[in-house]
Amino acid sequence: MPARQGYLDELEKLKNDVIKMGSVLEESINNVVTALKKVDGKLAEDIIASDDKIDDYERKIEKACIALIAKQQPVASDLRRVTSIMRIIADVERIADHCADISEYIIKLSNEEEIVMPKYVIEMVYAMKQMVVDTIESFVNEDHDQAERVIAADDIVDDYFEKIMDELCIAMKHNPDKIRQYSEYLMIVKYLERMADHATNIAEWIEFIITGELEIGKQ
Amino acid sequence: MEVNKKPKFEVNNLNLFYGDFQALKNINMNISSNEITAFIGPSGCGKSTFLKTINRMNDLVPGVRIDGSIKLDGLDIYSDIDVIKLRQRVGMVFQQPNPFPMSIYDNVAYGPRIHGIKKKSVLDEIVEKSLRQAAIWDEVKDRLKRNAIGVSGGQQQRICIARALAVQPEVILMDEPTSALDPISTQKIEDLAVELKKDYTIIMVTHNMQQASRISDKTAFFLSGEVIEFGETGQIFSNPRDKKTENYITGRFG
């Protein structure tokens, strides 16, 4: 039996819980994509209800991290892993919150007169989703290059946000009676843009786990 | 790295053999003054051997052979400095507190007396100053004539530190100074070491990795007679460069 087997098991379990939390988030984002496409208020309500699952994971993992630090005094890459996980789960939780925030607007849109969805919204949501998927994968494999690609992808999502905002401004000017629906889409894309920021944060923490160099917020 | 600060010790290509067995392999290290340098590593890795080499306590071990050099303030400790003078400048505190079976006062005054100090007022002053520096004066000032064996282990260890300080050394070597002590006594010795580094250079062998990370400025990791990694303690414990260091400090072997 290798040294400190119990400790290694606890570390492994911590990592697995983060991966599970990540997969719940992925499912939630997939539902957001579907609900957005169909402007499905019912599905949006389910998304809001499922946010509790993510919150439960956050509490549970946070507790496990604190207990591990208190009882096992991790150092070096173990310490980086545990402290980074505490930051990562906060970002995962924020992304999930934004799934719920977007869902609120989908419900509103579903109760109002339908308008054509701005161009690029679905492309933007896919770009953001890919960032989250890549982030989770780079966490699983501790893959520095993949984390780096996530960070680079943030600019693409930001560009979508700018483009969609321009489009919405023009649309509002031409159809002032639909301003409410347009501003709801504006809120949705702003949340998408924030979700990508949180994915970027996670990717930076993953790089910290791998390299030990703190690059957070450097760009 | 430290351009302005001259190292207290410069160790160059140091090899040590016990007969055919090579206990230290090509050690190169600069040890800075007014810092705590910790040596960590599994049993038999050479850290205590190296510590003992620094004040030539290995000289009398049969079959020992040493090459390379250790310089103290630029002077070779094996050729340029008399061993008695060396040990006056480089004191040692051991794992088990080892007070002499005599009074607390006589323990601390032992070194100065050997060095020819006889005047009571001078000795009184040295004893008080040393016990104060070792953070034990308040606990023993009313019973200096009592036998040092009769106090607690933690107090005995601080008396031993006072005894080492009494000959006004420049360097204090500590070989697992708290491994036989309870947590509160350990804390006192650790606080004391941090306090003492203002005036002394401290080199400490410890099996307690938290201790090394808590109080040392630099840490050297030894394995099979080699220094695997030597660097700032913060770096060693947060981001070691060598996988072997990482595996050891995270408890994956050793």
From TrEMBL, chain A:
It is found in: Cytoplasm. Keywords: Cytoplasm, Phosphate transport, Transport. GO terms for cellular component: cytoplasm. It comes from the Bacteria. InterPro entries: PhoU, PhoU-like_sf, PhoU_dom. Its main location: cytoplasm. GO terms for biological process: intracellular phosphate ion homeostasis; negative regulation of phosphate metabolic process; phosphate ion transport. Residues 19-106, 122-206 form the PhoU domain. Belongs to the PhoU family. Plays a role in the regulation of phosphate uptake. Homodimer. This is Phosphate-specific transport system accessory protein PhoU.
UniProtKB/TrEMBL annotation, chain B:
The keyword ATP-binding applies. One of its GO terms (molecular function) is ATP binding. Signal peptide: none annotated. GO terms for cellular component: plasma membrane. It is a peripheral membrane protein. GO terms for biological process: phosphate ion transmembrane transport. Gene3D superfamilies: P-loop containing nucleotide triphosphate hydrolases. InterPro entries: AAA+_ATPase, ABC_transporter-like_ATP-bd, ABC_transporter-like_CS, P-loop_NTPase, PstB-like. Part of the ABC transporter complex PstSACB involved in phosphate import. Responsible for energy coupling to the transport system. Residues 9-249 form the ABC transporter domain. This is Phosphate transport system ATP-binding protein. It is found in: Cell inner membrane. Coiled coil: none annotated.
